[in-house]
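Re: the request from the purification team.
They wanted to know what the chain is likely to look like in 3D before they choose a buffer screen. I agreed to run a prediction and write the result into the notebook, where they can find it.
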Amino acid sequence: MPHVTARAEGAGTARFLVVLLAFAWGLNWIAAAVALQEISPWSLRFAGSAIGAATLFAAARMGGYDLRIPRGEAVHVMVAGFFNVAAFQILSAFAQLNGATSRAVIITYSMPIWATLLGRLMLGERMNRIGLFAFGLCVTGIVVLAWPLFADGFPPFVMYSLACALSWAFATVYLKWVKTTIAPLSNAAWQLLFGFLFIAAGTVIVEGYPRIWPASGATLLAVLYVGLLGVGLAHFLWWAIVGRLPTVTATIGALLVPVVGVTASTIFLGERPTVPDIIGFVLIFFAAACVLLQPASRGAKPPPEGNY
């Protein structure tokens, strides 16, 4: 009986962490939007990824996790770090800089659909009826959301947001394609470190050095939030959740992130979604839900750490 009670308490704690994680990642978009008002995308991501990588390594060490990379897999983790961390973070920042945060969030979270499509192309995985239906919903949602914006020319944030989703999806499928055996938390930590190194190199090339100071207190707090909570601790929480709950339950946290992000952008940034925005959001959200929560995913391995 005590064993059953302890298990129930552990599951209850994990469910609380799912909600906590959704807010950590969802509000990360808001913190980035605040920081981008004063500092550049490159400087923001340099600071955020550095703080995040240090935080995750420290948390993993204190938790006694094994951070070794299996022989021959470092290059694969490095490739994933480039697309899943460096490209994702830079593209998402430019997407927010060129358009409404709520719209960038909506389009970025079309990622599960692009991952399904890439899985068909790279892994030969068959798209079932649910996958095809979800893909149709996703494309329709993006068209409905973006079409009115083309009246004033091509909106750059659409390209950045789609590229963001595709880079995230490619990294996810790539790790399946090369059949890595690295432990998930170790994978996340090293991806963050490699991603930081790529961002650091890009910052030096583009800006010479990170330009963070002088900045207001609100901006510095936003940068700390991005690195400490939105990147470092959030990734650690994700793998703590995956270890305690079924994959389907854990992925609900991923679905809550865009809901939190879009709602928070309305409250804190004063953005007012239009009717096409709302319709597009609903279509893309349900498309992602179809892919993430379909019965075939039960018992499957959890998805690689993401930028939820």
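For the purification team: The chain has one domain: 12-297.
Please add any questions underneath this entry.
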